[in-house]
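From the shared-data thread, chain only:
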Amino acid sequence: MKQDVSYWLAEVKTLQQQLSVMQQERDAAFQEAAQWRDRYHDETQLRQQKISLLQDQIRQLEAAQAALQKTDPSDIAPEIMESLADMNDPSELQEYVQEIAQERNRLRRELETERKAHQATREELSLALGDAIDLLTQRGKTQKK
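Structure, as tokens:
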């Protein structure tokens, strides 16, 4: 009887070890699956960002092309016409459009900065004028007394 119990205890211990090994393998498999899922997710996001950027570039080029088609050549500065005439490759045109867009953005930022400075100056001058009027009003009241 003691042998039967020892045999079954050894069998249970062996099964527990096998179960432990299988759980570790399962956990490792789950972890690897999670890593692959994360990699897939990252790659998907990267590709979606690239697609979005390319679509934006296509829209910009189409807008530039439409603008060029609508523009009277005589309205375009001669330097720009020369630059456009020298461009044979779409990538050159794309780079040129990007340069122009960057310059436009820079000019917009400068304009916005100038507007803010103008508004600040206007407010400061309005306050100074109000203070001057108040001061003159107070002086006028003290002189009448």
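Residues 1-70 form one domain.
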